[in-house]
Design a protein that fits this description.
Elements: H1 2-23, E1 48-55, E2 59-60, E3 63-77, E4 82-95, E5 101-114, E6 124-139, E7 145-160, E8 165-173, E9 179-186
Antiparallel strand pairs: 1-3, 1-9, 2-3, 3-4, 4-5, 5-6, 6-7, 7-8, 8-9
């Protein structure tokens, strides 16, 4: 499983790298600008981002995904490099030993830092996030549902093909998947 996750992440990273190498433009004189006014144009105060993605197969504690987790995300810019977002995800899986089905949901709040004042590449948004959420798991064999508060850690990259459309690749911890990939709409 770890090899599969690593392979998926490596292929996606290589594809994203080749896309950015082919059409990305380094902003000349970027570092000569004062930090406060510097921005590569991918994120700023007032930006809204909506993303939809699928997670890589994942297993933990004897459970494994039967369908890739589905992710919905919304983020709004509160400063030129800082955003606050809501993250939601759901996944279906089974236990390896007893074939018990489960339905997992994670809903959370994440604060993001965008490296748009540090990385001088147009259309490339590199970010990291930290937050908390509620992990809810329902099991079929006993009908039990358990909820707990979990930490959410995210790191990712978005590449915008147009001013309002792009793709993203994200990795981190959220109890559903170690990595996810999808589309992003910026408005």
């Amino acid at each position: 499983m770890k090899k599969l996750l690593f392979s998926v992440a490596a292929v996606a990273a290589m594809a994203l790298t080749s896309v950015t190498d082919a059409s990305a433009q380094v902003i000349k004189g970027f570092y000569k600008q004062p930090y406060k006014t510097r921005n590569n144009g991918t994120f700023d105060k007032g930006t809204s981002i909506f993303s939809l993605g699928l997670g890589a197969p994942y297993s933990y504690g004897g459970y494994r995904n039967t369908l890739p987790p589905l992710y919905l995300k919304y983020e709004m810019g509160v400063a030129d490099e800082i955003g606050i977002g809501f993250v939601g995800g759901l996944g279906l899986g089974r236990h390896r030993a007893n074939d018990d089905a489960y339905f997992g949901t994670v809903v959370g709040l994440v604060g993001y830092y965008h490296f748009n004042k540090i990385i001088p590449v147009r259309n490339l948004d590199v970010y990291a996030g930290l937050g908390f959420g509620i992990d809810i798991n329902n099991r079929t064999y006993d009908g039990a549902a358990e909820a707990r508060i979990v930490g959410l850690f995210k790191g990712g990259v978005r590449y915008y093909f147009t001013n309002s459309f792009g793709i993203y690749l994200e990795s981190g911890y959220d109890r559903l998947s170690a990595a996810n990939l999808g589309v992003t709409f910026r408005f």
